[in-house]
Amino acid sequence: MNIRDVGSGLFWLAISFFVCYKSFSMGIGTFRSPGSGFLPFWSGLILGILTIFLIITSAVKKQGKVSMAKLWGGMQWPKVILALAALFIYAILLPTLGYLIATLALMIVLFNLMGRPKLWIQVVGITGTVFASYIIFYVWLKVQLPAGIFGF
Amino acid sequence: MDILNNLLYGFSLGLQPSNILACFLGVLMGTLVGVLPGIGAPGAMSILLPVTFRMSPISAIIMLAGIYYGSQYGGSTTSILINIPGEATSVVTCLDGYEMAKKGRAGPALGIAAFGSFIAGTLGIVGLMIFSSPLADFALKFGPPEYFSVILLGLTIITFLSQGSKLKAYMMGAFGLILSSVGLDPINASPRMTFDILQLWDGIGMVPLVVGLFGISEVLINIEAPATREILKTKIKNLLPSALDWMQSKWAILRGTLVGFFLGILPGGGAIIATFVSYGLEKRLSKNPEEFGKGAIQGVAGPESANNSASSGAFIPLFTLGIPTNVTMALLFGALLIHGMRPGPLLLKDHPELFWGVVSSMYIGNVMLLVLNLPLIPLWVKVLKIPYRILFPLILLFCIIGSYSLNNSIFDVLVMFIFGVVGYLFRKFGYDPAPLILTFILGSIFEQNLRQSLLLSKGSFSIFFASPISACATTLALILFATSFVPFGKLRGRRPQ
Q: Are the Cβ atoms of B220 and A88 closer than 8 angstroms?
């Protein structure tokens, strides 16, 4: 049994049920007069049917067993978690801290994520990245980067 | 004469300083993303799309188009020097390009790739000019059933040809349609699956979705399992191919051009398939097929020509029918809509300046790329040597700025983050995001044409078989879908000897 596919299949089945259920409240309409929920319903139903095929074929398959542990075994997944956490916190704090401070903090975390470069590389790389991106996007291209409570 | 007059008109627009600058920036960034394995043209285009809001529509499309065909040039550099394709369309170039480099012939390999790309790209643009007008006139006969059927066929082909499991690819396609319906109903404007979140009334943003699925997920995969890149230590000399190199490559370049152009028009991985077909063709026609895989210059010239002419061919369905044939074209489709232009048969009539301006810029861009790719190869080699642990923070930063600058909204950054996680999980569980992106981008016009057709036919699906165009397209789509799940390999094994 391919646990990876069965597991993901159950997830998609849940999505399919949810979408079909929500479509009823939107109004599926009829073939003569399709409603707002027409495409979501049929897409959800097709997704559900295909998922059932996936689950069945994966459950009966004797070869190609892929366990969940194998997906992450031997990988540096803690660094992925760290990168995601850094990105999430950055997105939350960006409006408050402003672009320069928030991005400086993010770059410090990310530059050290895959090993510690030499100090001068860190300083030049981090500050160069932050200020160059500020000049290119905010000053030159007039992208409205958030200023934060400190005004920059 | 009409074509010539239009082309001259196009050059009058393309040679304006702002458009030359846009073209240069586009091809430069395209070459850079092509050289750097990872982000790819779709990711780069979606990140830079918000930047184009301050440009005129012509400049914006010129720059975005430049990123696309520029990336085809850049992809060959990493294939030849590192044996890692910079783009999916440069996979085949690894086979002989890297072998040539190992034999000390990196220069001629890079040179013939650049020149072949230039010739093919230029001829491809000529084809684009010749075929677009007649096809646009033909497309004026399309009504909602025809559009629905052709889009259905295109989506089916793309899903059929996607990597990995076809079942999972169709699931991605269905999910993309579901995501496309988030927001206001295009017909009666009632909110759908917005969960009382105001920002979702406009639907899920294309840029954060694509950036998340492609850019962020790619970075996460590389953080998790860093790939080692070892650049071949060889002197890069003799970038100008010799007379013998030209003699050996000329027919490969011409054949690759033709193969690439016509396959590039087809929905699906047109350029990718074109490179494989070109390689197979050159090997079959070669007097010394045993040299392929060991450094045959035709194995570089043909595929590299094919991928560049395919990138020109891919514009034809986009501009004339309003149907993108791959993810990159789908992004251009989205960009055109954002800039207030509807791709389709009326685009050439209503906005000839856009079409001919872009066509002329492609000529200019191809010249720029030839200049950029040959003398600047040592610079690209230096770029390749930048450690990934320094590059990925920059990539992430550009992803964030690209998503944020769309609406100056943190919500879009969060959407990008969510789809980054989703894209990472897709890769772990073996789901190809390309069909999802295509159905997501085309979902709205797909739905509108479906519902309009059903309204016209009072609910009868026979409307999709009423006209020759829709009947052919619908039938083909159904056949492809049905045959997707037939195990042809096993059936062949059961035939009696």
A: no
